[in-house]
Amino acid sequence: MKTVGSNENIQSPVERSNLLQQMISPGDVVLDLGSFASGTTQALLSRRCRCYVEDIPVFLNELQVHDNFDFENALRQHLVIANDDVKIDVILTWDLFHYLDLSEIASLFNILEEKIVPGTIIHSTRYMGQDIPERPQLFKLSDDLSYKMLEKKTSLKVPNYSHATIDLLTKLKHFSLNDTLTHSQSFNKGLVEYSLVYSDSRSKIRPVRPMTYEIRNSSEYHENQPIELPNLTKLLRKHERQQMSCIIDLGNSLYSNYDQLIRMSEIVLQEDLYASIMWQKKTSIEELATSPQDFLSLKDSVNLDLVLMWDIANFCQPRELEELIKELSRFMSVGGLLHLVLPHSGLSAEQPARFRINDKYESSYSGNLTGSSGQTVLTTGHIVRLMNGFKVNSYYFGTNEDGSCYQEYLFELMVK
Q1: How many C-beta neighbours within 10 Å does residue 338 have?
Q2: Per-position DSSP letters for 293-342, written without gaps between them
Q3: Residue 372: its pLDDT value, please?
Q4: What kind and span of H or E run contains 80?
Q5: In DSSP terms, which residues pair with 247 in a beta bridge?
Q6: Cα 356 to the center of its chain, rounded Å
Q7: How far apart are CA 94 and CA 376, in angstroms?
Q8: How would DSSP label each residue in 353-373?
C-alpha cells in the first residue's frame, strides 16, 4: 500500500469520459469508492439509483498501521455497505487500484463478495506513464455521467506500479475484461478507463432495466415507510457490543426509540426539539429572540456520544441551526457523532417526519420528508458550512419507494 498524503487545492479539469454512460442503468445500486466530493449522488439522482460513497482515499490517508494491524478488518470497519443486505450493480474504483497492492485489492473484494452478483461491473482508470500522482485524484462526475479528472496540485510523483490486467483478474475471481477506452495523450497524459464484469455460467450480460419510476404525491404515503439509513444501522449494531455512554434522540417524543437505543448506551435522553422550538417561539416576547439554550434542557454534566437530529435541521433558520449545533457540541467530546436525514431537493414538509428504529436497527418513518412549506431544503454545501468543528464521517444517498430522494449524514466532532 502506497502512502497517501493530505488533500491539496484543485487545478483545472484535464479530460472528460463517457464510458460510464454505457454502464449505469436506472435504479442501479452504485458503490463509489472515491472521494465524497465526487458529485456521484447528484449525477445519479435522475436515474433513481441508490448510491454508497465510501471515500477510500480518506480511509487510506487516516490509516494507522501498527504491529497487529489487519488491513481487511480495518477496511471492513470503514465500509458502511459491509453490513447492509444489498446487491451491487456498479463499483466505481477510479484510480484507487494504483494505491492498493494486490492483496489489499483481494481483501476489498473479499468483503464485497456477498454483495456482487452476475453482471456486476467494476469501472476503473489506469495511468500509462512511468509515474503517478502522489495520492488518488478527484474524479468529478457530471449529470450526463461523463466525468472530469480534477488534478490536485503536487510536484511529487510516485512510481507507477500498475497492476497487469491478468494479475487483477486472478485476484478478482469470476470477473473478466469488458471494455476499455484510451484517452488522447494531449488531454490526460495517457489515462485509460476500463470495465470488468462479473459473470458465471448462468449470466454473462447484465440486462438494462427500463426507467419505470414515477414520483407520486408524497401525501399518499403517511405511515411506516421504510427508509434505508445504513450509516445509522451500522453504528447501532456496532455499539450493541461496545456501548456508548449517552445518546440523545431529538425526534418526536410520541415515537420513542428508547427500547432500542438503551441496548447500546448507558443513558438515553429524549428531547422533542421541534416541539420545544415551536413552544418557545410561540410563548416568547416578540422583542426577545429565543436561543438554542431555550430549546434544550441538558445538564452540564451530560456528555453526548451520539445526537439523532433526524430531519429537524430543515425546520430551523440557518443562523438558528448554526447556533444549535454549537450548543450541542458543547455537550460532546471530540469524536462525538451527529446524525442527520435530509431530503435531497425541493421544499421541506410542513413538520418533521417521525422516525422509528426497530429491533434490527433498521428505520422507518411516518409523515413526509418533502412538501410545500415554502422553505427550500438545505444543500450539502450549506449543511457542511454550518457544521463548524465537524467533518463528514459517512454519507448515504437513497431513494424512497415513492421516488423521493434523501441524504443521510453522520458528522464527527473534530475540534471543540
Answers
A1: 24
A2: HHH----TT--EEEEEEETGGGGS-HHHHHHHHHHHHTTEEEEEEEEEEE
A3: 76
A4: none
A5: 268, 306
A6: 21
A7: 33
A8: -EEEE-TTS-EEEES-SB--S
What's the grid cell of residue 362?
433498521
Which helix (H) or strand (E) is 166 found in, with range? helix 165-171
Asked if 324 contacts 356 with a C-beta cutoff of 8 angstroms, the reply is no
Q: CB neighbours (10 Å) of residue 204?
A: 13
What are the contacts of 37-44 at 24+ separation with CB within 8 A?
Answer: 37/138, 37/140, 38/94, 38/138, 38/139, 38/140, 38/141, 39/140, 39/141, 39/142, 40/92, 40/141, 40/397, 41/344, 41/397, 41/407, 42/141, 42/143, 43/141, 43/142, 43/143, 43/144, 43/145, 44/397
Residue 27 C-alpha cell reads as 435504479
Report CA-CA distances (Å) from 88 to 69, 112, 192, 193, 242. 28, 9, 23, 20, 29
Residue type, 406: Y
Other C-beta atoms lying within 10 Å of the C-beta of residue 229: 25
> Cell numbers of 399, please?
431513494
In angstroms, the CA 7 to CA 300 distance is 37
pLDDT in tens, 367-411: 888 887 667 777 777 788 888 899 888 889 888 877 778 889 999
Q: Half-sphere exposure of 372 toward its Cβ, with a 13 Å CA cutoff? A: 3
CA distance 58 to 103: 19
Question: Inter-axis angle of helices 71-78 and 102-112, to 10 degrees?
Answer: 50
Q: How confident is the model at residue 206 (pLDDT cuts 50, 70, 90)?
A: very low
Sorting pLDDT into bands at 50, 70 and 90, what band is 64?
confident
Partners of 83 in beta bridges = none
Q: What is the pTM of this model?
A: 0.63
pLDDT tens, residue by residue, 301-351 = 889 999 999 999 888 888 888 889 999 999 999 999 999 998 887 777 888
Alpha carbon distance 169, 185 (integer Å):
26
- SS3 call for 7: coil
Rounded CA-CA distance 122/91 in Å is 5
Residue length of the chain: 416
Report residue 68 as a C-alpha cell.
497487529
